[in-house]
C-alpha cells in the first residue's frame, strides 16, 4: 500500500472495517455497527473506491457497506471517504459469497450493486464469473421486497449473461424492458471510460425483489 493508503487504513479500519473471515458466526448487526437504523445497501467489488466513495457521499441516508478482497483498494476507498467527510460507510474485506451466505440476514438489504465485475472474457474462464444462477438466487434472497439488484458491465456477452440469469430468477423482476437507462448518478469509472475509448458499450441492469404468491 502507499503511505497515504496505510495511514487511512490505520486511522479508520478499526472503526469502519472488518475481515469477513473474522466475523463471529451469524448475521452482522449492521444497525449497531453504524449506530443507527437506515436502509442497508451492499456494494460488491468496490475496486479502488473512486465510484463508491462518491456514491456514499451522495446518499447520507443509506448505511452503505462495501465488500472487496483487495486490501489496497479498500484502503484507497477509506482515504477517499475521509476526504469527502462521509460517516455512513463500512467496509468488509473478503469473499462476498461467504458474507451473504453466513452473515447477512434474508430480506435485509435495500439494494445490491455490482459495477463492472471481472468479465473473465476467455470462454474457459466463464465459470469464474460472479453473476451465475446460484449467486443471483443468494442475492435475491437477501434483498427485502422492493429491493434492487443493480448490475453494470461493458462486456456485451457478459451483459447478455447477466440479463439471462437475472431474468430466470423467480424472486426478481426487471424494472425495465431489457437494459436499464444509464443512471446519471452513477459516476463514470476509469474502466467505463476505457470502454468508451475502445468502443465498448456499457449496459446497466436493474432488477427488483418480488414476493412470491
UniProtKB/TrEMBL annotation:
Q: Which GO terms describe its molecular function?
A: tRNA (guanine(46)-N7)-methyltransferase activity
* Class in the EC hierarchy, top level: transferase
Record-given protein name: tRNA (guanine-N(7)-)-methyltransferase
- Residues where S-adenosyl-L-methionine binds: 43, 68, 95, 118
Q: Which domain of life is it from?
A: Bacteria
One family name in Pfam for this protein? Methyltransf_4
Summarizing the function annotation, the protein's role is: Catalyzes the formation of N(7)-methylguanine at position 46 (m7G46) in tRNA.
**HAMAP family per UniProt:** tRNA_methyltr_TrmB (MF_01057)
Q: Which organism is it from?
A: Saccharothrix lopnurensis
Instruction: Locate the residues binding substrate.
Output: 122, 154, 189-192
Tell me which UniProt keywords the record has, alphabetically: Methyltransferase, S-adenosyl-L-methionine, Transferase, tRNA processing
Q: Does the keyword Signal apply?
A: no
Amino acid at each position: 500500500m502507499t503511505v497515504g493508503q496505510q495511514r487511512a487504513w490505520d486511522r479508520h479500519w478499526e472503526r469502519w472495517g472488518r475481515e469477513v473471515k473474522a466475523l463471529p458466526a451469524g448475521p452482522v448487526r449492521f444497525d449497531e455497527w453504524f449506530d443507527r437504523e437506515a436502509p442497508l445497501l451492499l456494494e460488491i467489488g468496490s475496486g479502488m473506491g473512486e465510484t463508491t466513495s462518491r456514491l456514499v457521499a451522495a446518499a447520507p441516508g443509506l448505511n452503505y457497506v462495501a465488500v472487496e478482497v483487495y486490501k489496497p483498494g479498500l484502503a484507497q476507498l477509506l482515504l477517499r471517504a475521509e476526504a469527502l467527510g462521509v460517516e455512513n460507510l463500512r467496509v468488509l474485506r473478503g469473499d462476498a459469497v461467504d458474507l451473504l451466505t453466513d452473515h447477512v440476514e434474508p430480506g435485509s438489504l435495500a439494494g445490491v450493486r455490482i459495477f463492472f465485475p471481472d468479465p473473465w472474457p476467455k470462454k474457459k474462464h466463464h465459470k469464474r464469473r460472479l453473476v451465475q444462477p446460484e449467486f443471483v438466487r443468494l442475492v435475491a434472497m437477501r434483498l427485502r421486497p422492493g429491493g434492487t439488484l443493480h448490475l453494470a458491465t461493458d462486456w456485451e456477452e457478459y451483459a447478455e449473461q447477466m440479463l439471462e440469469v437475472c431474468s430466470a430468477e423467480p424472486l426478481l423482476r426487471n424494472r425495465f424492458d431489457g437494459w436499464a437507462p444509464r443512471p446519471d448518478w452513477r459516476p463514470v469509472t476509469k474502466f467505463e471510460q476505457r470502454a468508451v475509448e475502445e468502443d465498448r458499450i456499457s449496459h446497466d441492469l436493474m432488477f427488483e425483489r418480488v414476493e412470491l404468491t
